[in-house]
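Q: What residues go here?
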């Protein structure tokens, strides 16, 4: 009887451990972010910004073999000339630079935004930028979160 109880406990532990290791649907790694900065009124990334983007893209491709999606969001401040057009150009030019840098493994969404009106001294440098957000995927749609 004692042996039967021991085997029952061992069996329960094995079933419990294997169910915890099972994949319960598709999971993604945390999104990775990168900001490309622009000069006031500029919509083309500088040579230095492109070099930094190339390095980031190489790191993302090396660290994450799967990419679920890439979002590129161009921004402008309301006090720049034609801010909506400028934000759109920043987004498109950054998306092109990202593709040239090798971020070609996932669908890309491109959008733009203009910051809200207010005191120009309160505008942040991030408002003259484009943000890239990469969602790395997991092999076999299931993975453990890194313990970075």
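A:
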């Amino acid at each position: 009887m004692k042996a039967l109880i021991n085997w029952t406990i061992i069996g329960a532990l094995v079933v419990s451990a294997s169910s915890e290791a099972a994949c319960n649907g598709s999971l993604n790694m945390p999104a990775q972010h990168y900001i490309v900065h622009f000069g006031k009124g500029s919509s083309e990334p500088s040579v230095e910004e492109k070099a930094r983007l190339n390095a980031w893209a190489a790191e993302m491709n090396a660290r994450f073999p799967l990419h679920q999606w890439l979002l590129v969001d161009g921004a402008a401040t309301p006090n720049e000339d034609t801010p909506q057009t400028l934000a759109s150009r920043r987004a498109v030019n950054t998306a092109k630079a990202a593709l040239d840098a090798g971020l070609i493994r996932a669908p890309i969404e491109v959008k733009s935004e203009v910051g809200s009106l207010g005191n120009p001294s309160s505008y942040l440098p991030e408002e003259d930028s484009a943000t890239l957000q990469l969602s790395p995927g997991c092999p076999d749609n299931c993975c453990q979160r890194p313990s970075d």
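A: Context that may help when evaluating the design: Residues 2-21 form the longest helix (20 residues). The two ends are 47 Å apart (CA to CA).
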